[in-house]
Design goal:
It is built from six helices and nine strands. The protein is α+β, with helices and mostly antiparallel strands and 229 residues long. Strand 6 and strand 7 form a beta hairpin. Helix 3 packs antiparallel against helix 4. The radius of gyration is 17 Å and the shape is globular.
């Protein structure tokens, strides 16, 4: 199995098309910051291990050059821009702006972290909270039976505040053997696009390219601004 690390938008062999207007994100477009704050705090409360939890929200400016595998991300954004002419004005404006963001020296990164929680438990396989958040559609998987939210819509809130529709998730959780494990993965929700004659799906991932898997543990590929536990 290949352990190549980078951005991977899976090939769509059914000649389908993922449009720019994503229904999950559309739900939060009215007031994206307010919705994001509500969703991340609720997720932390649902995963609490003590009576109280701590949620920190920080805005950083980081060098664009520190984005993992930046050239591949730029290629994906540029390919979407080329396809956006047929998609509509809204998509064309967004991807033109996204291209400009990645040509700047610095970019804003919103860091959201929680403490006194169980983390987003893995591994990345169907049935775990990590998989439900990063890869499943129409699924919500939480540890608490009293947790709110059941349709998996809230996970789209972070993408609505990103100028490149891209997030990085890093979580530390305790596995069934009692070992603390860190999982890290990036995800972009863009739109369908063509690269080298292949139709690519709108959703793409950063991590181990084979089957779009997260990186386990602290890896040299992680930039300094990703929380390393």
């Amino acid at each position: 199995m290949s352990n190549d690390i980078g951005w991977q938008h899976p090939v769509d062999q059914a000649d389908q098309w993922d449009g720019f207007n994503d229904s999950g994100m559309h739900y939060f477009t009215g007031n994206p910051i307010r919705h994001l704050a509500r969703e991340v705090i609720q997720n932390a409360l649902d995963a609490r291990e003590l009576d109280s939890v701590l949620v920190k929200i920080k805005l950083h400016e980081v060098l664009v050059s520190t984005i993992p595998n930046l050239d591949e991300l730029k290629e994906n954004i540029n390919s979407c821009y080329e396809a956006s002419e047929a998609e509509g004005h809204k998509a064309e404006v967004f991807f033109e702006s996204a291209k400009a963001e990645l040509e700047k020296t610095k970019i804003q990164v919103l860091e959201i972290s929680d403490f006194n929680t169980s983390g987003m438990k893995g591994p990345s396989k169907n049935g775990t909270p990590f998989y439900a958040f990063m890869k499943a559609k129409g699924q919500s998987k939480k540890e608490s039976k009293t947790a709110s939210g059941s349709y998996g819509i809230g996970k789209f809130a972070p993408y609505t505040v990103s100028k490149i529709r891209t997030i990085f998730l890093s979580t530390v959780h305790q596995d069934d053997a009692g070992v603390h494990t860190q999982l890290t993965q990036g995800k972009s929700i863009l739109m369908s696009h063509d690269i080298n004659g292949e139709r690519k799906q709108g959703a793409g991932f950063w991590g181990i390219k084979d089957k779009c898997q997260p990186i386990s543990g602290v890896d040299g590929s992680l930039p300094e601004w990703i929380n390393r536990g």
